[in-house]
Amino acid sequence: MNPWELIILQPVINVLIVLTDYLFDIFGLAIIALTIIVRFVTLPLTLKQLRATKGMQELQPKLAELQQKYGKDRQKMAQEQMRLYKESGMSPAGCLLPMLVQMPIWIALFQAILLALAVAPEALLNLSRYLYSWPQVYPMLPLGNEFLWLNLAEGNFILAILVGGTMWVQQKMVTPVTADPRQQAQSRMMLWMMPLMFGFLCLTFPSGLALYWMVSNVITIVIQYYMTGWGALAPSAARKPVGRDKKYMTRITQVEETISEPPVEADIVVPSSEAGDYGRSGDKSQERGGGYPPSLRAIRRQSGRGGSHHPKRR
Amino acid sequence: MWSRRNKVLLIKVLLLAVMLLAVVGGLSGLGCIKGLQPVGWSGGVVADGSLFVGSAEGRLVVVNIADGSRQWSEALTKPAAAGIFGCEASTAGGGCAAAPAGVAIYGTPAVSDGLVYLGGYNGKICAFNSSSLAVRWVYPREGYLDEPVVGGPVVAQGKVYIGASDGKFYALNAETGDREWEFKAGDKIWSTPAIDGDTIYIGSFDNKLYALSATDGSKKWEFETEGAIAATPLVYNNTIYIGSFDRHLYAMDATNGSLKWKFMGGNWFWAKPVVYNNTIYAGNLDGKVYILNAETGDEIVDAIDLGSPISSSPVIVDGSVIFASQKGLIYSIDTDGNEIRPPNPIDVEKNVYGPLSAREGIVYIHALQSVSGCATSPPKGELIRLNAQKWEVEESIPLSSE
Description:
Oligomer: heterodimer
Order of helices and strands of chain A: HHHHHHHEEHHHHHHH
Structural class of chain A: mainly alpha
Low-confidence stretches of chain B: 82-100
Helix content of chain A: 55-70%
Largest sheet of chain A: 2 strands, antiparallel
Distance between the termini of chain B: 66 Å
Distance between the termini of chain A: 65 Å
Structural class of chain B: mainly beta
Number of strands of chain A: 2
Radius of gyration of chain A: 25 Å
Radius of gyration of chain B: 23 Å
Largest interface: A-B, 41 and 57 residues
Number of strands of chain B: 33
Mean pLDDT of chain B: 87
Strand content of chain B: 35-45%
Strand order of the largest sheet of chain A: 1-2
Number of helices of chain A: 14
Shape of chain B: globular
Low-confidence stretches of chain A: 259-314
Number of helices of chain B: 1
């Protein structure tokens, strides 16, 4: 057995079998239970990822402004982007890292379900080498494939639609609301491509896996709802910033508040007339305030948030 | 000295690298987990100077044991692909593309009165003419059984007895293929039956061993274990020996099904055991051969570890029990001292899952090439002729028709 099988796959398979034993010998319930357990254990990572994603979305207008400003000067653009990330406390890796940490767990769960289904004789023989000598494990096998109207070892059209549907809802909730037509097109493509792809995969994979995906999607939807509300799924009139994630909201509000009320200890004091000039031709503020648009200038003003490495002008 | 910032950065990079490796490794094996495809592991049966075996291509192959010449039947056919877009969901996770082409044959064929019988994973039971390999009859005549056939057939009293994954045990007329009677168990039947006089013994995934009347299929008795039964029963001295998924090997009175003894191994007893001089030799998926007193179930000597799971039934040749491990190592256990002799195993360099067969000092082994879970063609199989006396491989005969 390789380290992946020994450390990750084998424990997951055995837990899945024991759960089946405790859940009335119904493998479908064990899949649901294990998905919930895994999602609960990885909840801090999920929350971190969602916060980071939301934060990155909120930074999009500011990034667009930078793009507009330094579009031709790539080096400067990169520098200013990094500065923006640092000062706002956000980072693109913040979205990626929690997701990457969760990926092996998802894959292990996926493979464990595939192995535990063990329809063919070879699969059952293969499964025997992963078993712990826990008293309830050996006699439990082979696991029953029937769950509700499903044969968990075969593809199912209804479940494929449910997977695609829940994935669409999940995607829609995190789709950024933007006026930029290019971003709109990108978002639209992502919104439809992922659910269609997963829906199609569910037709060819055993429905035990589709069940796992569907439950996982529903859990993500619930978490997202508590984090950020219905997002782009809500009608535009009802859409409002959600205050559930206080830490994240505090940070964003700080950024917004400082626009109208510069702090006394600001690094750079920008005359309001110049700030108002931003966006017009000429733009003198580049020399004084580093050329930042008003919102970015506000970020720079925040002391103690990455801006402290700049020598203060006294 | 490294600054704290650099250390944190290094940890982040390492973590990211590990995660990426896990993701790439995991994804590459996502739909291609090895050992999930039905390939088949039919054993061989020797009759009239020929050996009959089911190949991984889904064909009945007849090998002339004198000169090694081969003859193939037509390949068994699959039911039309179920599911949307012509794709069939499979536990290989790959749908259409990952399914090997052949119909798997697990049971060892049975030969009687010029006919060869076998069951296919396509849910069809077939009788072939033993010389021309032309199909004599199929059951069911139209379509397929709802579930695959995994166990092998047994022929007696002019009937073919065979179980299927639909939980039914069939008795068919050996000449015509007409159904004479059927018995419904509570779950799948993968076991090959054993017959003794007018009683037929068959295990099922419903944890039970059934004793049925060979004449009309009426139940004489049943015995319930704590796990599913996929093994083939051994009948010896009015006792039934059978392994269960509860890790026990059971010994039951053949007359009434009362328990005589049970013995626990480290994993499942999948293979049919053999008996010699009142001693049971039972291979286990924990890789060990358990040597037990047939009367009491006591261990005669410590179990012999063959290093990899044992799913193939052994054979007895000249007072030695020949075992094959899944990794293709062939061992000879001398029944005098119950030790491995000669001490060096023979490595056939292929996997062995199916039962061994023997005739006149020669052991016949159906060995299969190892394949990945994503293989689109069936693995190459070979029939290996091993001379038990000289302890050497005489010949490897490819079973593939190409």
